[in-house]
Write a structure and sequence with these properties.
With 153 residues, this protein is mostly beta strands. 0% of the residues lie in helices and 22% in strands. The chain contains no helices and 16 strands.
Amino acid sequence: TGPNGRSCVSCDQNTYKPQNGSADCLNCPSDSQSPSASTSLTDCKCDPGYTGPDGGPCTACNPGTAKPGVGNASCSICPAGKYSEISAPTACNYCWWGKYGPKSNQSSKELCFQCPKQYTTSEPGSTSEANCTCIPGTTGPDGGNHCTCHDMM
């Protein structure tokens, strides 16, 4: 853009200009972005955490879903063992050590269940109580409800 008959400058990031002339660059719709020198509204792509057509409008992903990249992709449901609690999440969080999340689309870490006493998980993101194993120094069935101390004799 620029005055007619003078030097032109590229439109900034997050703006576009579809026609020739001295008109100002236009802002992308909210929650979207474009590279510099964009020439079309459809160059404006939804931000991570938002979904919608190129050019907008962009809608925030719901808790229990996430969208990591820029563009018109749909929000993905968080798989079992993960959750997202906020609006417009860019990633799903793992249920932490010692917890498991048996359902997909979890919208709260409170939906990650605690393993029974003296049990933990071998990694975050466990999906079943069967993934709960006895803590070091104890023995018992995986996913069970009773670990006992090792006999040191």
